[in-house]
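2 proteins. here.
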Amino acid sequence: MFLKVGIKILFLITEIFLGFYSLVVSESLLIKFIFFAVTAAIIAFGMLKTINKILPADKSLVDIQAEEKEK
């Protein structure tokens, strides 16, 4: 149930974003570039957070960090 609601909210946000984007694209080239850079940063940050939540931590790295803390 939460997945369906999440997908609907994501779809709605995407539609609003694309509507705003179409307005921005018709303006200055500098505004297009800034909007693209900010959008790329937001997407990259979101993907990193999602990947960190989904994938398990590397146990060998955790063990090495624990050994370094003990020293």
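next one coming up
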Amino acid sequence: MTQTPLKPVHGLFAIVGFLVCVEVASGVLQGFYTPIYPDIAEHLDIPEGDVNWFEAAQLIVSALCVPLLARLGDLVGHKKVLLLSTAVTALGSWVLAFAPNFTTFLIGWALQGAYVVWLPLEVSIIYRRTARTGQQTRLTRRSAAILVGALELAVIVGALTSGALVESTSMTVLLMLPAIVVTICLGVIWWGIEDAPGESTGGIDLGGLALITTVLGLVMAGLVVIRLEGVGSVVAWLLIGVGVAVLVPFVRYENSLEQPLIDVRLLASPAQWPVQLTAFLFGMSVLGAQIPLSTFAQTDPDVAGYGLGASSGFVSTLIGVYVVFLAIGAFTLPLSSRLLGPRAALVASSALVAVGYGMWLAMHDTTAQALTNMAVIGLGSGALVAALPATAAAAAPPERTGFATGMTNATKTVGGAIASAVFAIALTATGSLDGPDEGQAPLSGYLTVWAVCAVASLAAAAVLLMMPKATVEEETELPVVV
């Protein structure tokens, strides 16, 4: 007697369709909040500089989630971990909607960072689903391209939605919308994706996870103390110094394991370290500068003496322009690689990002200038977003391509987290994390943000010049977005 399965086993087209729904939710999360950061700050009664701590907390959680959950997916099954990470993201999103204060909101924001592992898990699901088709690589690339296209479209939709609704509804109702979208994803994943067991053996490197968590925790704690007590704080620099020092036992421990959480030897190879360091430097601008750009645009120049006095709706437009040019930069990467050569195209892309942020230093008085700056930044950023994961994979042995690709996400988020904390310090006017008095961030703080992003991008261009040409011989077909 044949038993009827509880759930249908869907074909690849249907599975990609279900995963598109997940990427739509990811895009909503990435685009929804940026236009309303100043409104959130007002809702929580905090100054705009402290909003950067939201981003720093989430990015740290994200950086730790990627290697841990990716490894767990290999062990117990990718669908199970996709469900787990979605449930955590949904919990964080609901906490945001009803958070009564800064601390609660910060916790919810950190939990929401679990969504960063969605795309790597989805690609793994598709890759496994297409096994024995004879077209595994091609089908995976095409499917992932569809997912990325859906994500980029959803970023724009999320930004336009929040910008349009912020003035017409309460903050609680507004913040419930992304929570609802993510919650729906739980049902979509449960029904649409077949549950396959994990194929990997061994366990999870909890010792390595504990050590790298200690490193990041101490460094971020030091930055928080600098925020509260100033750059002259001995305790702050001691915390940062100890955090950096813990990297020594971490590297030794990871090198002693057969299956480490982070393959330090691979990351230190001549073909890998320039890619990973570039991802770190790139993360400082592509992730760390989002909130400062939003708060600057919405600052009233009649009150602060600078800013665009823009509405949340205009910030949505600004994000839309940026994402459109990001997509253009990503999808024209093969053309620029043919014209300039693969490595030169990456160097040029980093230089474009540097030029864009350099333009902010001199051009920040009008909306037209802001749109021009973001278009230039978007072109360069899109090419880097598309190329770095594939470049890392090409420079890794076949059995470690997933790790190398995931680490570009992890190092990028670490760079963004540290930059977010530094930018929060630069933008500080008065008060503390608990209950600051009213005050505008100084213009010098924003100039510092843009200068750091420009210098980091120039440094990335220099680092890319050290990458062996063989690492980037093949052109990138697939744009991959966090």
